[in-house]
Design the sequence.
């Protein structure tokens, strides 16, 4: 009988040697997939105005951003706070429709009415520039606009 | 000396280190959510479009000049006072509202708390705020004015929502959003949607941008 008596054994420890590999894989995945910012700014980081009645932009893939502000390279683009940046370069208001249409191409047709244009303008830029952009947006039926602002304290 | 076997390095805490890194990255990467003042543009009018005639008293005119000064209904005003003036204008309720879509005649505003003066707006759904700015106006001032006008609307909406449903409009919208997301609140979605719509229709946001002066 003694032949069959089981030897008393403790529970064998689970081999955790592969755990770091799994965690590192996760880590790398997050590091690779988080993009910090898609466009690099040619204008100086706009000082956004503050507001209280704000709405959040939910779906980033449906948002196209137009920057307005002062150029970093005044010798090339000229001075003033009314430079418009589309994608990666300084443009004029006339190029806004083409910019919107190119964004629209990448998006399923039924989602097009949900697309929002976010205008990130410096608080010292002029309303005239914004109105020029707005008229062009209306021409291509991009009617949802979000004036990007920071959050001000409610009083 | 006797050559000793290399002892194996204990890698048990490696996972902890990696987890720590992972959590650090998870916490520090903010998906910076953009937020701002939302607006819907009006569609481009057809070339033969004749704008409807609107009574002078139903328009609240705001002018911003190139020195960022405000002219409201013909008087100079500071930005901080514009909210109060807008509330008085929207909430006046001096006459009949717009006729319903089904042809029913317009009703007078029974929830308005204004002076009901004859020289100000008839009904919140007829009251139009028209903002005219100069091309040279600073964008910051323009947004500030828009924000103050929106605040006037949200104050009125909050007031009405508290009276009718016992919670502010912000809370009402918040719970509507939550109900849409979660499955076990599904039966509440419809009633909340009705409440939100009701408040929105009672105080519609009508802010138009007039052609700028140059």
Sequence:
């Amino acid at each position: 009988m003694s032949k069959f008596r089981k030897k008393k054994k403790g529970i064998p420890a689970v081999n955790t040697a592969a755990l770091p590999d799994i965690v590192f894989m996760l880590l790398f995945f997050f590091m690779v997939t988080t993009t910090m910012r898609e466009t690099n700014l040619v204008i100086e980081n706009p000082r956004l105005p503050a507001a209280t009645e704000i709405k959040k932009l939910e779906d980033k893939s449906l948002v196209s951003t137009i920057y307005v502000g002062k150029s970093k390279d005044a010798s090339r683009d000229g001075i003033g706070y009314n430079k418009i940046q589309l994608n990666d370069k300084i443009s004029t208001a006339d190029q806004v429709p083409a910019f919107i249409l190119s964004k629209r191409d990448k998006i399923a047709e039924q989602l097009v009415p949900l697309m929002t244009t976010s205008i990130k303008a410096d608080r010292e830029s002029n309303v005239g520039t914004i109105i020029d952009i707005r008229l062009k947006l209306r021409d291509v039926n991009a009617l949802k606009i979000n004036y990007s602002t920071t959050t001000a304290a409610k009083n | 000396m006797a050559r000793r076997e290399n002892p194996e390095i204990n890698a048990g805490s490696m996972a902890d280190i990696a987890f720590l890194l992972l959590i650090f990255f998870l916490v520090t990467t903010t998906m910076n959510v953009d937020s701002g003042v939302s607006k819907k543009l009006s569609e481009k009018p057809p070339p033969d479009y004749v704008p409807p005639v609107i009574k002078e008293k139903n328009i609240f005119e705001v002018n911003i000049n190139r020195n960022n000064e405000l002219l409201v209904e013909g008087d100079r005003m500071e930005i901080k006072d514009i909210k109060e003036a807008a509330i008085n204008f929207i909430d006046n309720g001096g006459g009949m509202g717009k006729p319903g879509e089904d042809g029913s005649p317009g009703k007078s505003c029974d929830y308005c708390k204004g002076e009901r003066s004859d020289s100000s707006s008839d009904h919140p759904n007829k009251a139009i705020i028209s903002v005219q700015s100069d091309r040279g106006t600073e964008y910051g001032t323009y947004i500030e004015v828009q924000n103050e006008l929106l605040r006037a609307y949200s104050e009125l909406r909050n007031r009405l929502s508290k009276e009718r449903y016992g919670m502010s409009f912000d809370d009402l919208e918040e719970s509507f959003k939550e109900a849409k997301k979660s499955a076990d609140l599904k039966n509440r979605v419809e009633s909340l949607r009705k409440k939100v719509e009701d408040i929105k229709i009672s105080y519609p946001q009508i802010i138009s941008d007039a052609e700028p002066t140059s």
